[in-house]
Design brief:
The complex is a heterodimer. Chain A is an alpha/beta fold. Chain A is 32% helix and 26% strand. The longest helix of chain A is centred in the C-terminal third of the chain and has 14 residues. The mean pLDDT of chain A is 87. The radius of gyration of chain B is 20 Å and the shape is globular. Chain B is mainly alpha-helical. Chain B is 83% helix and 0% strand. The interface between A and B is medium-sized, with 21 and 20 residues.
Chain lengths: 242, 254
């Protein structure tokens, strides 16, 4: 997978669990895009992102990165993907610095200087133990871990769902700075906070209860409903047939 | 996966095994030192202790898997860009490192003047069988201890599990010795018989489900004492109970 040819394609992707079905969907993402998957809890956002990140193997259809099925490239493909999970994963007895040091060996493109720069930018003390971090700090650490190797594909699963508005703004600002619009990297993130989508995304995938409702650029959405803020348009679209 | 990543995994496993391994090694070192001091040390005695040490440390491999599952670190480990074989390899390598370090320390405690242990075939066989016996007996005894814990809700067993298992093993050996003579002689007799390979295979086969049974019991106990996932670590469970008892003393009506 190279940054210039990066593309992610979902063909007939769906899952069938006893209590959750995601109907087959077809989507394609390209380098330079910042794509938001929006929808309420249970829409299928995290399931989709996990499959793209190589953390979900039990699905129908195909998920391809640079033309190759993700399942066939695990675990190698994970070294080229930055993934921020919903919950911080790691050993609670490790310090922040130890956690990043542990991870650094697994990612060939890991940049220690950049990792320290990111830590400073999000004001995260490197000596704190993982078990003592607040939810907001844990999200910041997950972001640093996901971004420190400058992956061509950055996946953020609900990065702002459980943190206070101040930290949210701070984190979104850092994401915005680290992955500029129109670059050679692809950002996929999920959220049910529509203001975050408005700030970060340039394309929106709308999902509800395991179904794909729509796939539009933010410009298309705004042109469709002139004068309204994007968050209001999304709110109306997601709640239209409730 | 590169060498540095494997060493990182190994280092993490080594740090996680540390407390249990240190306790086991010190305990067995002290036991053998006492045997030497009382002039009861034999090659087979040393072999038995080394095998028991290895068995008890290898018990930590599946127990660590269980801990990973309950604490959520399993998700972390399997999400790394590393093969499952590398993860398993690092875990067993850490257990072997501790067992080797323990063997050296116990042998040192036993006295450097003893002839090389592996110079004779018989002690090696005794060590092998002791390894398997410990593995099975720690599984079985821990299951029994956990059953008692469930019956009487004795939460102290959760924190002192390894100590209780060791104490029970040595009490059992002592009682056997008093009733039927040296257990080492019994092991030697079994190993000298034609049925020795069958016994070893049977113990191995029985030991595996025994170990997994232990894990499911442990999981059940932790679920029972702390509620559904996420299940906190043992220390957190006990802290939670201490806090609950303190609260109960202060506000009995609650």
């Amino acid at each position: 997978m190279t940054t210039t040819t990066l593309s992610v394609r979902l063909s007939g992707f769906g899952v069938r669990y006893p209590q959750f079905h995601l109907e087959p969907i077809d989507l394609e993402f390209r380098a330079g895009e910042r794509v938001a998957l929006v929808g309420a809890n249970g829409a299928g956002k995290s399931t989709t992102l996990k499959a793209i990140a190589g953390r979900l193997h039990d699905y129908d259809g195909r998920v391809e990165i640079a033309g190759r099925e993700v399942r066939a490239q695990v675990p190698k493909i994970r070294a080229r993907i930055g993934f921020l999970p919903e919950q911080l994963l790691g050993f609670k007895w490790m310090t922040v610095a130890e956690h990043l040091g542990f991870l650094s060996a697994f990612f060939p493109t890991w940049d220690d200087d950049y990792a320290h720069e990111l830590l400073a930018r999000v004001a995260l003390p490197s000596g704190s133990k993982l078990g003592t971090l607040s939810k907001g700090m844990a999200v910041k650490l997950s972001f640093v871990a996901a971004e420190a190797h400058r992956p061509p594909l950055l996946i953020l699963d609900e990065p702002t769902s459980a943190i206070d508005p101040l930290m949210r703004g701070e984190l979104l600002g850092v994401i915005d700075e680290c992955v500029p619009r129109g670059g050679d990297r692809l950002v996929l993130f999920s959220s049910h906070i529509l203001e975050d989508v408005e700030r970060i995304a340039d394309r929106v995938i709308m999902m509800r209860r395991g179904r794909l409702l729509g796939d539009m650029t933010t410009r298309e959405l705004q042109e469709r409903d002139l004068g309204s803020p994007l968050s209001q348009i999304l709110y109306d679209a997601l709640g239209s047939d409730e | 996966m590169n060498k540095r990543a494997f060493l990182n995994l190994l280092s993490v496993e080594y740090r996680r095994y540390g407390p249990h391994a240190r306790r086991s090694i010190i305990f067995l070192g002290v036991v053998f030192a006492v045997l030497v001091a009382t002039e009861n040390a034999t090659h087979n005695g040393l072999a038995f202790l080394l095998g028991a040490l290895g068995g008890s440390l290898f018990m930590m491999v599946p127990v660590t898997v269980l801990k990973d599952k309950t604490s959520g670190t399993m998700d972390f480990l399997v999400s790394l860009p590393a093969t499952a074989s590398a993860l398993v390899c690092a875990r067993f390598a850490a257990a072997i490192l501790f067992a080797a370090a323990g063997a050296v320390l116990v042998a040192a405690a036993a006295g450097l003047g003893l002839p090389p242990l592996l110079g004779s075939a018989e002690p090696a066989r005794v060590a092998g069988l002791a390894f398997l016996v410990t593995w099975v007996s720690t599984s079985a005894l821990a299951c029994a201890a956990i059953a008692l814990l469930i019956r009487f809700n004795v939460n102290a067993l959760v924190t002192h599990g390894p100590l209780i298992v060791f104490a029970t093993v040595f009490a059992a050996v002592y009682v056997y010795d008093r009733l039927f003579g040296s257990p080492l002689n019994a092991i030697r007799a079994v190993m000298a018989s034609e049925r020795a390979p069958l016994v070893v295979v049977a113990i191995s086969v029985l030991g595996t489900p025994g170990s997994w049974r232990l894990h499911s019991c442990w999981h059940a106990v932790q679920s029972r004492t702390t509620g559904p996932n996420p299940i906190p670590s043992t220390g957190e469970v006990v802290d939670g109970h201490r806090k609950a008892r303190r609260r109960q003393r202060l506000w009995p009506s609650l």
